[in-house]
Amino acid sequence: MVRRNCAREALVLTTVAAGVFLASPTKGHASDNLDPTMIAIENEQGTLRYGYKGIAVKEVQKTLNNLYLYTDKIDGIFGPNTKQAVMQFQAMHGIKVDGIVGPQTWKHLEKSVATAAYKKPLQLGDSGTLVMSMQKRLQTLNYYTHEIDGIFGSGTKKALIEYQTRNALRADGIGVAGPQTLAHLLNNINKKGVSVKIKKVKKQVQKSVDTAVVTIARKFLGSPYKWGGTSPTGFDCSGFLQYVFAAKNIKIPRTVSDIWNFGSDIGKASIGDIVFFETYKPGPSHAGIYIGNNKFIHASSDGVMISNMHNSYWKKRFLGVKRISN
């Protein structure tokens, strides 16, 4: 039996995954289990977004997994990790970064499906979408200065060797981009010459915490997420923190890693402290304001919201607590 969400939905043929019928999303909670008796139906636009589930979502997860962008369970559920991987894919290909698989994102995913298997290490003479993605990342990180043509030539190899040497990546072989190198490269944001370093800060316990920042932060619940956003029209996680603390005339750095280095170490969180998490890359990469009862307010990929630190996703990624002095 086919379950339909609305009258608009109709079974369509998509070109993704070499002519396979990709069903589309039934909308639901990302935590739901897939109903094995359900045939997912694709809506007219074929758009996938957070909360959807179905065979099409699973195919997207497989493609992103082959690109070393998605490493979670391939379950057909469009949850936070799937959305984060989609956003990284969009950023690499110059598509609007919104975490939604729309026409442009589908187009680039289709091109990726048509290329050779990604699990094979890339080396001199190879070509394709993943080589292009690797070149773009090496260029963004200030290692590659040639044309982005998707061809693994001598210039690409030279840039790759420099990157591997600088980051002590030896498992794949020098000049060969295998699983270790690609996973590190495609998730790295530290440019050569401006690498982020996590400094050890002496433990300093402040006797008072400005709890007023929580009151300010709550005013923006529901504000949308925006990559690089720093205002109520759209926040990313560090932009949200900076905006809230600025309202109390407290100036903090712009990036999560710099805020981590800026704050004072605290053993146990109090209301108003900043809690940090290790998400898509090593070190602090996400943060929010602790509001008590093991909860924190933050700008997630779904906008400003309150989450429980004991949630399985956040609990295993918790990194530490910092306090910002008045």
Regions with pLDDT < 50 over 5+ consecutive residues? 1-45, 194-208
Number of strands: 10
**Going by CATH, what is the homologous superfamily of the largest domain?**
endopeptidase domain like (from Nostoc punctiforme)
**Strand content range:** 5-15%
Strand order of the largest sheet: 5-10-6-7-8-9
Provide the residue-averaged pLDDT.
Answer: 76
Please name the CATH architecture of the largest domain.
Alpha-Beta Complex
Helix content: 25-40%
Molecular shape: globular
CA-CA gap between termini? 61 Å
Q: Can you tell me the CATH class of the largest domain?
A: Alpha Beta
* CA-atom Rg in angstroms: 21 Å
Largest sheet: 6 strands, antiparallel
How many H/I helices? Answer: 11
Compressed to H and E, one letter per element, the order equals HEEHHHHHHHEEHHEEEEEHE
Number of structural domains = 3
Q: In CATH terms, what is the fold-level topology of the largest domain?
A: endopeptidase fold (from Nostoc punctiforme)
Structural class: alpha+beta
Brief characterization of the structure:
This protein is of the alpha+beta class. The chain contains 11 helices and 10 strands.
